[in-house]
Specification:
This protein is 33% helix and 16% strand. With 427 residues, it is of the alpha/beta class. A ten-stranded mixed β-sheet has the order 2-14-13-12-11-9-10-7-6-8, with helices on both faces. The protein has a two-stranded antiparallel ribbon with strand order 1-5. Strands 3-4 form a two-stranded antiparallel ribbon. Helix 4 links the parallel strand 9 and strand 10. Helix 1 crosses helix 14 and helix 7 packs across helix 8. The mean pLDDT is 94.
Length: 427
Amino acid sequence: MEWLGRATIDFTTHPKSLSLQDKNGEETNLLKICQSAVPPCQLNPLLFNGHAQTMWTAAKGHGPQLRYKRRIFKADHTEFDGQYAVDFAVTDPTQKEDADASLPPRTAYFSETELEAMGSDDDRPMLVILHGLSGGSHEVYLRHAIAPLIDSGKWEACVVISRGCANTKITTGLLYNARATWDVRQTVKWLKKTYPNRPLFGLGFSLGACIMTNYLGEEGSATPLKAAVVVANPWALHISSKVLQSTLIGHHVYQRVLGNSMRALAMKHKDELEKYTNIDTTTLFSHTFLYEFDRAYQCPTWGYPTEDAYYRDASSSDSLLAVRIPLLAINAVDDPIASNLSIPYAEASTNPYTVLCTTSLGGHLGWFEIGGGRWHGKPICNFLNRMAFEVDFTSLKSEVNGNRASGNPTYGTDFDPLRRKMYVLNE
């Protein structure tokens, strides 16, 4: 039935999925919750493969008209200082006309009075969102996914903007990379302090899904987040990059489009790059493909010898092994950017805290339905609503499999999924 747009849905998880209880005391598990949260995937049959679904995202520009207020944070990491922005979804109807021409559409800065008033003792769930490569809170795929939660009046949400994206200014020579978990970590800590009674949840898209998974793996059971969803994660960046380079359309369309978006982003910060780095911006801006940009920018600024070394170190497939909160991961098998060859099926099958949901159709952040809807918003909202309002988290044990490292103690071997090659001082 795929030729009619009906995608096949598969689930991969540990044979003994994470045991949970609902607030009525009924026993369930993470797999059952995910299966009930994921509806049938009936997509537009005219967008009949991953390329059509992915390319239609460039043509389909409309979406829910969400509004945001932006707060600027001073980074608290001693090595990666500077500033970054967080966009908070605005639900007050009296603020609908606020906008700042220097920011993305329907976005304005908080006033000083509003900043001073931030904080609450309410217990509404709060969603922390990470966008995709060179994106922001304005992205259509993101608004489609979270609009039902915001419109319900039961949720609050904020989008952590990757440094330099969405008209943010950088005050150092650093933009961001797939290992840059420091800003989301600081934001989560600030939210927990500012809204102490709000349960926190996570959501990441594409490169933001990679960053979110890396953050969850690094934090383990210590994260304040209760549960999370990651969508269209490229997982093994080196594999996805090589697959793109191996085909004509992957190399000359996707690598070019992604590379051009990063080049345009870097050009907006030309003065800062020339002030704080030794990068030859003329050469940097002459590159066409994403891997060329990563070689010219990510390698010298973060200290990687090659772009493949960066991709291997920043990938999140191993981080999945260390996740210790309920996590739903959604990928389309026909995604031409986050290749199916990079999806960590084996890793998902070893961790009871994770459920990997794959659809046979959908492309990269596409999942277009007949009439223009986006399917991916349905499992996201269903899962988060189930976890926020129905699951009793007091029944969840902090660890299921004991230590998160693997190995053979008899022979003195161990495996740490978080042992990175780039050592970060004073983290």
